[in-house]
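[Discussion] Sanity-checking designs against the backbone

I'm trying to build intuition for which residues belong where. Below is a structure token string of 247 positions. I'd appreciate it if someone posts a full sequence so I can compare it with mine line by line.
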């Protein structure tokens, strides 16, 4: 992984970003709280959700001081047929149906589309979420993909060099290997360092192959393992797992 550029300018903290970074809730919910007059700064009602914050500012939400929540990390095996959102305007089932027993706010890190399955990470740690998903960190994601048809040596070489997948975007695999072939289909393991929209499906479509199934088995230091579809576990100590990802 490339050396971090600590000189990169970081976004300034405004009110709703500060509330979200504390792990209290999402930015959308923080905005709703401000609009509902539930937030005060230094004892006075907060009227501007975009107000820049100072380290000495005291924030209260519903009369209680805003305190940083204990970080939580949940790993789920997402089944196919569920969307990675809390609510869906089309009424489709969401992954949060499996998290009904989880108290407090957690968000998904790196979404999987409706037809994809496998490893999903949920957390209230916005810093870790940014590290895992921002392209500049080149965090690896590994998938097992069943495609229609076969791949030749030239195809694999092209995928490693970079393939035009449309919309002015290029997809380049870090690693790729064929796990097996049967009945005109090929099982491929592929590792990427970005998460463009439907990237893998678009990648194989550029070779005339449709994706029959797609499962994420690794995301950075996190592995799916033997976790069954629809099940989740909470990781209590991730110090060793993320020490090489910290800015």
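Best answer:
Here's mine. Compare freely.
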């Amino acid at each position: 992984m490339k050396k971090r550029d600590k000189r990169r300018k970081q976004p300034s903290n405004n009110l709703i970003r500060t509330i979200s970074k504390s792990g209290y809730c999402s930015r959308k919910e923080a905005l709703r709280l401000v609009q509902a007059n539930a937030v005060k700064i230094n004892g006075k009602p907060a009227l501007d959700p975009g107000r820049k914050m100072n380290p000495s500012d005291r924030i209260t939400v519903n009369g209680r001081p805003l305190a940083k929540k204990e970080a939580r990390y949940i790993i789920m095996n997402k089944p196919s047929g569920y969307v990675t959102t809390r609510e869906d305007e089309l009424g489709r089932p969401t992954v949060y149906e499996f998290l009904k027993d989880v108290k407090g706010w957690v968000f998904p890190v790196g979404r999987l589309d409706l037809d994809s399955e496998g490893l999903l990470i949920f957390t209230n740690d916005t810093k870790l979420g940014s590290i895992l998903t921002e392209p500049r960190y080149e965090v690896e994601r590994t998938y097992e993909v069943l495609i229609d048809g076969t791949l030749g040596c030239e195809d694999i070489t092209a995928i490693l060099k970079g393939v035009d997948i449309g919309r002015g975007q290029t997809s380049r695999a870090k690693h790729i290997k064929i796990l097996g072939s049967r009945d005109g289909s090929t099982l491929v393991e592929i590792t990427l360092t970005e998460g463009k929209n439907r990237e893998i499906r678009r990648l194989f479509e550029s070779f005339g192959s449709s994706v029959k199934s797609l499962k994420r088995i690794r995301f950075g230091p996190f592995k799916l393992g033997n976790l069954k579809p629809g099940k989740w576990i909470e990781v209590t100590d991730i110090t060793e797992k993320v020490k090489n990802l910290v800015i």
